[in-house]
Design brief:
The structure is a single chain. The chain contains eleven helices and ten strands. By secondary structure, it is an alpha/beta fold. A ten-stranded mixed β-sheet has the order 3-2-1-4-5-10-9-6-7-8, with helices on both faces. β6, α7 and β7 form a beta-alpha-beta unit. α1 runs parallel beside α9, α4 packs parallel to α6 and α7 runs parallel beside α10.
C-alpha cells in the first residue's frame, strides 16, 4: 500500500508540472536528436562482446553510421578480435596497439574520429566473474578522459528486434550536460519506443540543503516536496523540449519523479530486454561524478554516459 505522504507528493508533483506547462516561459524548441556518425567498438573477448557487437550493428543499420573496431587487450594475444569482427560487420579495424587498455582505446578514439564509443564494462573481465557492482579501472579512466560519449554494455542480452525500446534519462541536480544527454536520448530511442526523464531527489542533497537553510533561517521549513518541485522547475524547458521531440519523432515520452531510497527501480523495466540508461556527466562536479559511477555499478543494463560536445573541430 502506498503511504499517504507518497500519494501527496505524486499528486503535488503532477499539479506543479501542469502549472509549469501552462506558464509563460517563452518559446521552447524541440530537442534536436543526436545520432552517431562513426561508432568505435572496443572488444576484450569477454561475455559482454556479443551484445556490444549487436548494438553496433543496429546503430549501423538504423543510422547508416560507419563502424570501427579495436582490440585493446593488453599484452600478447593469440588473435586480433577487431579484424575478425570488422570482417563480419563490414567495419574498419584499428591496428592492435600496446600498453594499457584505456590508452589503446583513447588512441583509437582519436584516430577513428568517432563520435560514440561502445565498450564492455568491466573491461577485460566477464561481468559474471567479478559481480555487477564492479566497473573497473579502464571505465574510470575513460569517463575521466574520453572526448566522446561512452556507452558501456554490462549484461549479455539476446538481441530482440529494435534495441532500446525504452530509454531512461536520469538527472539528480543541475547539470550542464543535461541538454546534450537529452539530445542523445531522443536520438537513440527505438522507433515507437518510450523515453522517460527521471528526476531523482537524493537524500544527501536534501540533508545538505536542509542543514544549510536551518543555519541561515531556522524558521524556514525545507521539505522534500519543495525541493522536488524546485528540481522540476529547473528542468522545465528540457521537459518541454523532449515533449516536442517525442511528438515529432514518433516515440512516447514521460516524466517521472523518484525520491532516493524508494523501493523498486526508478522506472519499470523488462529484465529480459535492455533498457538504455542515459547519464549526463559534468566533469569536475563531485555530485555528478558520484551519481554516474553509482548508477553504472547499480545497473546491469547498458549505460550511455554523455561527457562532452561531439563536434570535431
Amino acid at each position: 500500500m502506498v503511504e499517504p505522504t507518497r500519494r501527496n507528493l505524486d499528486r503535488a508533483f503532477e499539479e506543479s508540472m501542469d502549472m509549469f506547462s501552462r506558464a509563460r516561459v517563452g518559446a521552447v524548441a524541440a530537442v534536436d536528436p543526436r545520432r552517431p556518425k562513426t561508432v568505435l567498438l572496443a572488444l576484450d573477448g569477454s561475455s559482454q562482446d556479443p551484445f556490444g557487437i549487436a548494438v553496433a550493428k543496429q546503430f549501423r543499420d538504423r543510422f547508416g553510421c560507419a563502424l570501427v573496431a579495436v582490440d585493446a587487450r593488453e599484452g600478447d594475444v593469440p588473435d586480433d578480435l577487431a579484424a575478425q569482427v570488422a570482417e563480419t560487420l563490414g567495419a574498419r579495424a584499428e591496428p592492435k596497439g600496446a600498453g594499457d587498455s584505456f590508452a589503446q582505446i583513447l588512441t583509437a578514439v582519436e584516430h577513428s574520429e568517432c563520435d560514440l564509443l561502445i565498450t564492455p564494462c568491466p573491461y577485460g573481465r566477464d561481468l559474471e566473474a567479478v559481480g555487477p557492482d564492479s566497473a573497473g579501472t579502464v571505465i574510470d579512466v575513460l569517463l575521466a578522459r574520453s572526448p566522446v560519449p561512452v556507452l558501456v554494455v554490462r549484461k549479455q542480452y539476446e538481441p530482440q528486434g529494435d534495441l532500446f525500446r525504452q530509454v531512461v534519462m536520469i538527472l539528480t541536480a543541475e547539470n550542464e550536460m543535461a541538454p546534450e544527454a537529452a539530445a542523445w536520448a531522443a536520438g537513440l530511442v527505438a522507433p515507437r519506443g518510450v523515453l522517460i526523464l527521471v528526476l531523482v531527489l537524493e537524500h544527501e542533497m536534501y540533508e545538505n540543503i536542509h542543514a544549510l537553510m536551518q543555519s541561515i533561517a531556522p524558521e524556514m521549513d525545507v521539505s522534500i516536496d519543495s525541493l522536488s518541485h524546485a528540481l522540476a522547475r529547473n528542468y522545465m524547458r528540457l521537459h518541454r523540449g523532449l515533449q516536442k521531440a517525442a511528438a515529432e519523432g514518433g516515440f512516447d515520452y514521460r516524466l517521472n519523479l523518484h525520491v532516493e531510497g524508494e523501493a523498486g527501480p526508478i522506472a519499470a523495466e523488462d529484465a529480459s530486454r535492455p533498457t538504455l540508461h542515459v547519464l549526463a556527466l559534468e566533469r569536475g562536479d563531485r555530485v555528478s561524478q558520484g551519481s554516474v559511477q553509482g548508477r553504472i555499478r547499480q545497473s546491469l543494463h547498458p549505460v550511455l554516459i554523455v561527457v562532452l560536445s561531439l563536434i570535431h573541430i
